[in-house]
Amino acid sequence: MKHTAELERIVSRFNGQKNFIDKLTTFLSSNNYLVTAIPPNDDLYSWSQNLFNLLFHFGKTDLSVARVYEGHVNAIKLIKDFGTESQRAFYFNEVSKGKIFGVWNTDAPKNPLKASFTETKMELNGSKIFCSGGYRIDYAIVTYGSSSNRQMAVVPINSRTSVQENYAFWQAMGMENSRSTELTFTNYHIEKNVQLGNPNDYELQPWFSGGSIRFCAAQIGGATSLYEETIEHLRRKGRHENSQQLDRISQMRVEIETGKLWINKAKEVYGNANRYSSPEIVDFSNMMRNVTTTICEKILLLSTKSIGLPAYMNGHPVEQKLRDLMVYVRQPNPDMVSHNIGLYGVNQTME
């Protein structure tokens, strides 16, 4: 990937700092990666190849970078799929100006986001959690309403005094730089025309589930970085030709190459979605999620076995990578994903 060295310098210099997202947004904008997220009207396959390569390489460099960027990609796709012509023109122009987007769907359990309306305006009150990018995101797609009447809206965030960030919420052991904080809206007034699509569009298949193949590519990138850093550690210690270490390296290599094959298939599915039915795309994404989790868990185990205690020491090249991957690989409803994979297979054999 171009600009890898530049991104690595940003990650190293601003790691753990609250302005990490600002520096990342500047990097993504100046190198046209924000605009890259906008799907073209034709040749989606070539665009898909480039997009998944970016997600993989961002994940390989820093998983928080990949998480924030994947959120931007998700938001742009939702606007492309469900926005009006004028909304697409406006928001895509904002992207060209260097604005970064996110998607925040999860409500705070005791204070869900709610909307009230006048003739032309809406008022938002309540909290969202796991808001990757936090207060530094320029526009966020938020959801509100009951589970049977869930509506999206695209709302400006950065510098809004009616939006308060609770950074203390994000106490995970990894992915600190993603700033996946709690955001509280208080008497937040905005025009009603920021509503996106129709109620429940957010959960429409295939892409409500199918979009997971994007973060799978990033996770495999993170696992690849762990694999390579493990070999570098063994080489520094002169243990890279030890027979037991080579056995672990061989196992890790097979897992990484398997992940890359799944990414190649994901590029094809994402770029040629019209060739697949909605259930086929959902099933593929479920399988890729399942496989990716297995790959990452094996890499985490084999890497730490190979390196030993130093892997858990602050400052070691793999220590933060371990923590970030452990957190990022934990995605919602893994048991349901496995259940649906099996059910799809059973139903296929009955046809």
TrEMBL record:
Keyword Flavoprotein: yes
GO molecular function annotations of the record: acyl-CoA dehydrogenase activity
Keywords annotated in UniProt: FAD, Flavoprotein, Oxidoreductase
GO BP annotation list: fatty acid beta-oxidation using acyl-CoA dehydrogenase
Residues in the signal sequence: none
Domain Acyl-CoA dehydrogenase/oxidase C-terminal: 213-328
Keyword Flavoprotein attached: yes
Pfam families registered for this protein in UniProt: Acyl-CoA_dh_1 (PF00441)
Family recorded in the similarity comment: Belongs to the acyl-CoA dehydrogenase family.
Alphabetical list of PANTHER family matching this protein: DEHYDROGENASE, PUTATIVE-RELATED, MEDIUM-CHAIN SPECIFIC ACYL-COA DEHYDROGENASE, MITOCHONDRIAL-RELATED
Name used for this protein in its record: Acyl-CoA dehydrogenase/oxidase domain protein
Organism placement in taxonomy: Bacteria, Pseudomonadati, Bacteroidota, Flavobacteriia, Flavobacteriales
